[in-house]
Amino acid sequence: MKKRFILFGICLLIVTLTSCLDHNPNTNETGKDEFKALELDHKLSQDEINYEDIFYVPIYSDIYVSDQNQKSLLAATLSIRNTSYTDSLFISVIDYFNSHGDLVRSYINKPISISPMATVNYVIEKEDTEGGSGANFIVTVSAKTKNIKPIIQAIMIGENRSTQSFAFSTDGYSIKNK
Known about the structure:
- The protein is mainly β and 178 residues long.
- The protein has a single domain, classed as Immunoglobulin-like.
- The protein has helices at residues 2-20, 34-38; strands at residues 51-58, 62-64, 71-81, 89-97, 103-106, 112-114, 119-124, 136-143, 151-160, 164-171, 173-174.
- The strands form 2 sheets. Strands 1, 4, 5, 6, 8 and 11 form a 6-stranded antiparallel β-sheet that branches. Strands 2, 3, 7, 9 and 10 form a 5-stranded antiparallel β-sheet that branches.
């Protein structure tokens, strides 16, 4: 019972802190645009690429929480993790789509490089309802080696009537035709 109260307190603190922040969620600790700082200064040639994949990542910007179709707004974080100890992971597309399949926004204009064992995150603010309950990301990744296994996930955090907080995650799924 004590563990539930601690978990509830942590979730409530996270939701409270993220809802109070009024900044661009795409900035890092130094105030610079995280993706801009990772942009490649040159395009990789197809000869350099030995791994390519496209991931579909479901995102929920709201979910139904009661019998009366009452919605609860959610904050969502897209997390792209490079699990390689030695090789960089390259991201060429991070596109956000709504429930109707319409492109809401593209997050990068140039490919970015994620260093070995590094992670990039992008936050969809709780108040951003453009995606809807069926929102999703398409993320295109590549690498110079075939031995790379990126992890792409999303975590959603919400609250119900200010008395309950909840969090859940989704995994990215490869949708590239082999």
